[in-house]
Amino acid sequence: xxxxxxxxxxxxxxxxxxxxxxxxxxxxxxxxxxxxxxxxxxxxxxxxxxxxxxxxxxxxxxxxxxxxxxxxxxxxxxxxxxxxxxxxxxxxxxxxxxxxxxxxxxxxxxxx
Amino acid sequence: xxxxxxxxxxxxxxxxxxxxxxxxxxxxxxxxxxxxxxxxxxxxxxxxxxxxxxxxxxxxxxxxxxxxxxxxxxxxxxxxxxxxxxxxxxxxxxxxxxxxxxxxxxxxxxxxxxxxxxxxxxxxxxxxxxxxxxxxxxxxxxxxxxxxxxxxxxxxxxxxxxxxxxxxxxxxxxxxxxxxxxxxxxxxxxxxxxxxxxxxxxxxxxxxxxxxxxxxxxxxxxxxxxxxxxxxxxxxxxxxxxxxxxxxxxxxxxxxxxxxxxxxxxxxxxxxxxxxxxxxxxxxxxxxxxxxxxxxxxxxxxxxxxxxxxxxxxxxxxxxxxxxxxxxxxxxxxxxxxxxxxxxxxxxxxxxxxxxxxxxxxxxxxxxxxxxxxxxxxxxxxxxxxxxxxxxxxxxxxxxxxxxxxxxxxxxxxxxxxxxxxxxxxxxxxxxxxxxxxxxxxxxxxxxxxxxxxxxxxxxxxxxxxxxxxxxxxxxxxxxxxxxxxxxxxxxxxxxxxxxxxxxxxxxxxxxxxxxxxxxxxxxxxxxxxxxxxxxxxxxxxxxxxxxxxxxxxxxxxxxxxxxxxxxxxxxxxxxxxxxxxxxxxxxxxxxxxxxxxxxxxxxxxxxxxxxxxxxxxxxxxxxxxxxxx
Lengths: 112, 630
Description:
Strand order of the largest sheet of chain B: 1-2
Largest sheet of chain A: none
Radius of gyration of chain A: 19 Å
Number of strands of chain A: 0
Number of domains of chain A: 1
Number of helices of chain A: 3
Helix content of chain B: over 70%
Shape of chain A: elongated
CATH architecture of chain A: Orthogonal Bundle
CATH topology of chain A: Helix Hairpins
Structural class of chain A: mainly alpha
Helix content of chain A: over 70%
Distance between the termini of chain A: 52 Å
Distance between the termini of chain B: 79 Å
Shape of chain B: globular
Number of domains of chain B: 3
Order of helices and strands of chain A: HHH
Largest sheet of chain B: 2 strands, antiparallel
CATH class of chain A: Mainly Alpha
Oligomer: heterodimer
Structural class of chain B: mainly alpha
Number of strands of chain B: 2
Number of helices of chain B: 25
């Protein structure tokens, strides 16, 4: 499959994530959108990694490791995302306990 | 073998050491210690100067090079002393008269507190040090260091009684007026460096002799140097500081404002006589300014009532005579008059100090009178000083003044006429001063009359020595007509000051001129005797009032120069500084405050708006990266 499809899909996912973060007020949905963006990036990394690997094989380099670092990064991102989710969800829980809502517009005290 | 004169550095070094000891230890040393250190260092310098004089007389002329003071690129300015006939003569005057005045001061200033006493002597020593640098320097820069140093000491000593506001003002006036002249001097030095790349006397004069300088350059440099001299030597238009400088203690007036510092300008021009002789335009300017100053100051002196003011204007007038001589090319006559003037004017100032001392600080001659009975030595020495300055043979003033008058006669008989008239005025105002002060009835208060006493020996002995010098000082320069080979001063100075302009007058003319001036001076003295022997206080009217108010020159300067500058200063500080400068500075601050107040609105606290901004910025970065990159 051509790389273009991966790129378009990934761009679409990323854009959906951004629009979601910008427009929605529910903290959980914002969270999901952030995950969407992270995974769009993951998809892109894996796709390019595969592309470079195939290109190296076609060039006759049988012992290549080209593109493996891209896949490695995906794991890093997953770990960071997992950590982030745990902290973020904890914040959301605390927020709900305090103001009985998960609407981020109530959190405008950031300017103080 | 090294020249024995290499050790002349001791002569200025000793007063410097005296300055340091007295200046730093003024709170710990006793008055007698301070007196001994202050006067002793000068005495040793004087003895050394005599030794140097003997060496120079024996033909040992030396330029002592010590180290390079400034060394930049091709320009090397050495710290060197030039010991020749001219500087030796000044060394003797400075250390000799300086020593006498130090001794006199020990008694005159004895009522001061020890620390102020120490301060006074340290300033005096610093002054002697600077003055010695000035005359010993082998180039214009070392001379300039001394030149500035004496200006500083003059400032410090005029403002010695710093608690009186007017005295501080007088000190500032002297300093500022001197600075105007100093600036011209400095420009002349730069000019020399630009044209010749050297400031050493020998090199500059030999370059000038080899016609390496254009006439225009020489004229400009000499005029600038002369402007410097008008500041230091109190000539028109910068003379008004000298009478005000009488705010200082009387011995200071005697030392700095009569005998030594004010003659620095004459020394400088005599030293640069090679340059001046090549610039006839400057010579004319010097002569006319000198003559005008002599006449103006003499007329002012006629109506002054402060004993020191009369002497101050007399000094200005005599300095004018010296410049007249310089302008006529009679450098030796000018130096001769510097010497005799140092004797008799120091004598007169110290005499006036003795009178002021006896009168308990009174300086107004209208309140004196009849002092000759109580102050016999002061009176006699003062009388000798007056005769000497009036120019009656065989007192010293006669010979030097006659030489000047003769040179003026050779240059221009009209100048001679004016100079002679000024000389008559000199005799008149000096004897007016003498008669009002010492003859007639006492006009002061009862308590002053009780207080009257002759001054102690430390004051009278210098007076007597100076009186003797005032009598015999002229014999080093007896004119040719009296005695062949009598003019030993000219002979002595001939290696430094080349004789030129050999249009001498016939002997009969010379005798006639001398007879004329002497006769008229004696007539003036007799006139003054009848007019002032029984002086009655009276208000000056008409023209006398103009003279009493010094031709309103100070007022003129105030209106034309000082007040506009003050007004500009006020405008600058009150309007320009407050409105424009402060406005600019505050404006920058206000702009930033306004800008930040607007930018602060971005921080709304809405997380979504932050994210939006972040996204917009990122998009912008991408746009710049992709589309605007070259």
